[in-house]
Design a protein that fits this description.
With about 190 residues, the protein is an alpha/beta fold. About 30% of the residues lie in helices and about 20% in strands. The chain contains six helices and ten strands; from the N terminus they run βαβαββββαβαβαβαβ. Strands 1-2-4-3 form a four-stranded parallel beta sheet. A four-stranded parallel beta sheet has the order 9-8-7-10, sandwiched between helices. Strands 5-6 form a two-stranded antiparallel sheet. α3 packs parallel to α4 and α4 packs parallel to α5. It is globular, with a radius of gyration of 15 Å.
């Protein structure tokens, strides 16, 4: 899942309503200031039913956990389902970049990937959402009318044909539904971004 401006409000609506029995890991990319890591983790933990972890290089993905990209690092998913951190140049002035993380996960999970793009004031994530859809993954974009900053979801909708465009209030329910039916627990890990 990815968000920029207005993301904290979006997470407050989504995270408390996710099932405690989620059969997938969640990777969360929030554009943030370079000194806000610990504050973001603490804040997300206060309203999440699931454990929230700040990503450490080499960390292994586990179902039912939320992994947060740290400030000033791109977050990458590796073939062995570990996470790595990268300090290459910002993308659309952002590091972490939603596009970088989503494309990295797409290269591992392909059509099993479920990606969610929320509120934001730039177009980060739009290219990746288009690619995920083209590769057969599932895409959900917040309805721009409910987004605190409409530009990011509007840009992604214009570049792709998302599977779902939903108001913020309906996103958790859809995620729970899809991770139980489309992505049942199995020996092969799936991922939600």
């Amino acid at each position: 899942m990815g968000a920029s401006q207005g993301g904290i409000n979006a997470w407050k609506h989504i995270l408390p309503n996710l099932s405690k029995n989620l059969a997938v890991p969640i990777i969360l990319v929030q554009h943030q200031k370079s000194n806000s890591d610990n504050k973001l983790i603490e804040l997300l933990s206060t309203f999440s039913n699931l454990p929230v972890e700040r990503v450490i290089d080499g960390m292994k993905l586990q179902a039912g956990y939320i992994y947060v990209a740290p400030a000033n690092y791109h977050l990458l998913v590796n073939a062995d389902e570990t996470l790595s951190l990268d300090v290459s140049s910002p993308v659309l002035f952002s590091r972490p970049s939603i596009d970088v993380t989503f494309q990295s996960a797409l290269s591992i999970y392909g059509k099993r990937l479920l990606a969610v793009l929320l509120t934001g004031a730039n177009s980060d994530g739009s290219l990746a959402m288009k690619l995920i859809k083209e590769w057969g993954g599932t895409t959900i974009i917040e309805n721009p009318n409910t987004a605190e900053a409409f530009y990011m979801p509007k840009s992604a909708i214009a570049q792709s044909f998302p599977d779902y465009v939903l108001p913020l209030a309906e996103l958790s329910q859809k995620l729970n539904q899809l991770t139980c039916s489309t992505f049942p627990a199995s020996h092969e890990m799936e991922s939600t971004l």
